[in-house]
Amino acid sequence: MRSSLALLLVLLLAACAHSPDALSPLQGKAFEQVAANHPAVRSVERYEVRLPQRERLPYAGAFAAAFDGSLPYAPGSGLSYAGRSAEGELVFWGIGDRGPNADSPSVRKAGREQASKIFLVPAFVPRLAEIRVRPGEGARVLRTLPIHFGAEPASGLPIPVGQTGASGEQALDDHLQPLPFSLRGLDPEGIVRDRAGNFWIVDEYGPFLTQLDARGQVLRHYAPGKGLPEILAARQPNRGFEGVALSPSGKVYAAVQSTLDIDGKSKHQARFTRIVELDPVSGKTRQFAYPLDLKHYRRAGDAKIGDLVAIDDGRFALIDQGAGKNGMRNLIQLIDIRDAEDISERRTQSGQALEFASEAELKGVRMVQVKPLLDLRELGWQAEKAEGLALLEDGIAVINDNDFGLQTRLSGAQGDNGGAYRVENGKLTAGGQLSVEPNHEPTSLWLIRLRQPLQSLKGF
């Protein structure tokens, strides 16, 4: 009898594992509550976001032996809070980026070198994710919505060279062979839902600002020189828009992840990054300078923005992060744009873009006011990328981007030094070997309960 019951249990578990509604196994704890030792924080709830099997991405490619027949979907590139369900669950919308991709050495072709990325699932369609949190129990992805341009699905593949949003990268398959470009390429990095149930998303390629309807269909698509300031085309590759917010008055705000690199000369000279305001009704835009605290970084271009969320019409919370001199930094800042000047037409005394201004010259520019709220690392945050930020009734929510659970491993005569190898004719030079393997980092959603809700703050 015992053997029969054991066999029945094994069969039931196997059936659940292959059910499209079954949840993926947990890598850590489903839920953990922490009494944080921080003057601004009452408590921290940490959830591992579980994924239905139907939302995993089938994979049987060159590195399939390292994975269990599929790859995880990663919904943590952006986050928006949508309220509570009838069952009392917290409802969020997350977004994933351009799909399962991994670092690879430069491609050498016709004597020239070009940056590259390996795309394990080239047909992946960027998508939104509805995330439900049952307080004190667990978090899960309920469903996803693929993004479409009319009848055609969006793609995560890079945009052709010469087109707005081209990153200059060559996409490779998992045999290091070149993949085609896509004119519908999107690398989403932020999401916010409006009162009508539509979404605004931002991307790193363009950088693009795109409005979607409730089904994921593109309604409006803004690009540098096409509804957005043309100077934004000088974003560093893969450092376009990283965060998006919607104010109560209906204006949309998009934050550029890092300093602009104008004519390839300003990324390490600039001392600020840009936040763009768009009025969707009039089409008018303004730009504000967010000052970077560069004493913590070896180079200005290492500082990054993760996401932002509106508190009211002039104040926001923002993720400020990057690889600092003493390790990774993940900060939550409060910012105020009410007294900041529009820098759209502002130039240096010599007529250059403001990114070339000296520190002394920038003292005459009214930038965004910044006040630190908390350091996620002090609360126990371990992930590299805090990329989604949402405002709760009594605090904030933060989610990480785990890069679809992937990482590259290089080996050979030059060790793991990626700069020492090149891809030529589908192989690595210098006898190098490349593999893609799990990074074992889950998608984690933190609910940080504050002692004083941000909405009640009278000033910074």
TrEMBL record:
Entry keyword annotation includes Signal: yes
UniProtKB keywords: Signal
Residue ranges constituting the Phytase-like domain according to the UniProt record: 180-404
Signal peptide: 1-19
UniProt superkingdom: Bacteria
Protein's name in the database: Esterase-like activity of phytase family protein
